[in-house]
Amino acid sequence: MPKPFERIAVVGLGILGTQIAMLSAYAGYKVTAYDTRPNAFDETYKKLREDLKPKTEIPLIPWDDWERCRQAVWIRTNLEETLRNVDLVVEAVKEDVELKRQIFKQMGEVAPPKAIFATNSSSLPISRIEESSGRPERCLNIHFYQPLQGMNMADVMGGTRTLPEVLDKAADWLRSLGLVPLRVKKEVVGFCFNSVWRAIKKQSLYLWGSGFVDFRDIDRAWRIFTGMKMGPFGIMDMVGLDTVYDIEMVYYSESKDPQDKPPEALLEKIRKGELGVKTGKGFYSYPNPEFLQPDFLNPRK
To answer: Beta-strand (E) ranges in the chain?
Structure first.
């Protein structure tokens, strides 16, 4: 199948942005990437190698190809240079609607008219961002899951005026990356899987934050019941606790329901710099978290 695009740009080189750029390079696309921090890509790349290799059995990018893919991504600190002649831009910055609107406005001013704009937001529908781009018909959500190396799926969701061919091209692009596109037919906060995951995450945080159950036992219960290799708190560490908090605050700001507000205990961890895998400590300590130990599911003490 012919590729739907030739040139891809990624804006924001955190954990997911870096993986999106590398996977696009591995699939044969010409990739440029932008971040205001000149060393963001190399720093995140090193962190990913350390954190993902022990946990991922079947990576989307074979480990032997990682360095080649890293070198294939052209890093820029000038947005106009990054977006020159690009076909698709994936924005992957912090979960902050005003920041995303600002970036979409800047992208709309310098990107070619043909360019499609996608946000990787975990909770914000594109309808809250699209108008700032000046081209709402070419804007959509493409939401990737973390870690991308182990989650071969992504949501595709349009906004108020997204053209059908834009959604089709996005789905074809995801397939070319080896990912399963999950088509969300109508705009909904949380997309497909995250709507389900949100209920699990919210209740897990409530049980822990209110002192009912230790987070380790919640993870043990989940893993024993589902057969999965990671529980809700291990997953949240992988996502980043600051990102988890920002996402939960989006839900809370939408509903105004006090039960949707994340627990204060989560904010305390963030204030201490315990953000999860990316800082070496969250609920667990990394790179050798407790849940990877052989006796985690059946502790002797």
So the answer is: 7-11, 30-34, 73-76, 88-91, 116-119, 139-144, 153-158, 180-184
Which residues have a Cβ under 8 Å from the Cβ of 256 and sit 6 or more positions away? none
- pLDDT over 90 for what percent of the chain? 79
Is position 301 within any domain?
no
- Residue 54 above 90 pLDDT? no
- pLDDT computed for residue 268 by the predictor: 98
Q: Indicate if 22 and 138 belong to the same structural domain.
A: yes
Q: Rounded to an integer, what distance in angstroms lies between the CA atom of residue 12 and that of residue 151? A: 20
Report the 10 Å Cβ neighbour count for 264: 8
If we measure between CA atoms, which residue out of 165, 167, 172, 145 comes closest to residue 156?
167
Neighbours of 159 (CB within 10 A): 21
Distance of CA 243 to the CA centre of its chain: 9
Radius of gyration of the CA atoms of the chain, in A: 19
Domain span at residue 249? 194-292
State pTM to two decimals. Answer: 0.80
Asked whether residue 111 falls in the same domain as residue 214, the answer is no
Which of 184, 214, 235 delimits the end of a domain? 184
Give the confidence band of 172 by pLDDT, cuts at 50, 70, 90: very high
174-218 confidence digits (pLDDT tens): 999 999 999 999 998 889 988 899 999 999 999 999 999 999 999
Asked if residues 95 and 243 have their Cβ atoms less than 8 Å apart, the reply is yes
Token pair listed for 299: 């502790």
